[in-house]
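Much of the work behind modern protein science is quiet bookkeeping, done one molecule at a time. Below is the pair of lines this work produces for a single protein:

***
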Amino acid sequence: MNRIQIIGRLTANPELKSTSNGTQVCTFTVAVNRRFNREETDFFPVTVWRETAVHCNKYLAKGSQVAVCGELQIRRYDDKNGNRRIAVDLQADEIEFIGMKSDSKDNQSGKSSKPVEQKQVDIDSMEECDDDDTPF
């Protein structure tokens, strides 16, 4: 079974293109922190097709957090110098928009995000916890 699930943030704005027969395709890269070594990051190129591609291009921007499920596709090819290369791509069939990076002056995408509902928390009622007890 070839199935992969990742959660991370877009490294740049998504790019929407059309194939020669008019099928919409959107590509972007998702940065994912390693589970046990937060200082290391993996970068997954993601490809999304058809209507989902249009939605990703419309609602996602650099810094948006997404959950992506799909198949990992590995292609082997020869570059223009005859060197053997490998390309890895996550062919997504499910995308969940988890969170949008807050709008700022340096966000040049022109895409807006809906404000996140904020809840009031009574800090005095919270219990202190030891970092060693945290499961993540």
Notes: Residues 66 and 97 are 5 Å apart (CA to CA). The domain at 4-102 is CATH 2.40.50.140 (OB fold (Dihydrolipoamide Acetyltransferase, E2P)). The chain has one helix and six strands.
